[in-house]
Amino acid sequence: MSLAGKTAVVTGSNSGIGLGIARELARAGADVVLNSFTDRDEDHALAGELGREFSVGARYVKADLSQGDEARALVAQAGRCDILVNNAGIQHVASVEDFPAGKWDAILAINLSSAFHTAAVAVPMMRAAGWGRIVNIASAHGLRASPYKSAYVAAKHGVVGLTKTLALETAEAPITCNAICPGYVMTPLVEAQIPDTMARYGVDRETAIRDVMLERQPSREFATVEQLGAMTVFLCSEAAAQVTGTTLSVDGGWTAR
């Protein structure tokens, strides 16, 4: 599944799922553009390390994806976008009556609207190049709901809808658009939550993971960023040329219920 000669823009990719996906795309030979809202030396160094490790072009572009013009500028600055991975996202947990309006606006802007803005610039590039892949990182919460996550659930359901619309609009071009819907994924952020969960419930590490954190995930195992990266590479391959407008769950059976 060589992606040599392709350029991938991955939003929210200086850590966690986004970085895992960028690594697998680079491993497959794609040049990569990393992104987040910071502009630190370590962000640019990370891109340099990735490029050297896989012998591909890699650079970092700062963009605050809560701002539509910056989301659009990210893709424009990339100069080329054969593969667009909309991964950036934030979360807040509260009941509807206590949910801060500012948090609602920020979650919808970063988790949903940014995908619209990046795609609006990327799709014309893909049409001109005669090839393109859009992979939106939705969530099991794009297919199921949970209490106290109104903005996140609404945004991720919106990502699924946007995915289907983009797929229909590009159906006659060699462009596909799909959504990956992860359940719980092992990332540094999740790893850091395990000790607090153990302390809160007074249980050991294995119990905290299996019976608390993964209570909804029937496999009782976290998905990995490498698995999500491999799924993304598959969706970018010719084997997936007729896979478009769909959701692929990586959730250990969560949405099978």
Automatic annotation (TrEMBL):
<dbReference type="InterPro" id="IPR002347">
    <property type="entry name" value="SDR_fam"/>
</dbReference>
<protein>
    <submittedName>
        <fullName>D-beta-hydroxybutyrate dehydrogenase</fullName>
    </submittedName>
</protein>
<dbReference type="InterPro" id="IPR050259">
    <property type="entry name" value="SDR"/>
</dbReference>
<comment type="similarity">
    <text>Belongs to the short-chain dehydrogenases/reductases (SDR) family.</text>
</comment>
<dbReference type="Pfam" id="PF13561">
    <property type="entry name" value="adh_short_C2"/>
</dbReference>
<dbReference type="InterPro" id="IPR020904">
    <property type="entry name" value="Sc_DH/Rdtase_CS"/>
</dbReference>
<dbReference type="GO" id="GO:0003858">
    <property type="term" value="F:3-hydroxybutyrate dehydrogenase activity"/>
</dbReference>
<dbReference type="InterPro" id="IPR011294">
    <property type="entry name" value="3-OHbutyrate_DH"/>
</dbReference>
<dbReference type="InterPro" id="IPR036291">
    <property type="entry name" value="NAD(P)-bd_dom_sf"/>
</dbReference>
<dbReference type="GO" id="GO:0032787">
    <property type="term" value="P:monocarboxylic acid metabolic process"/>
</dbReference>
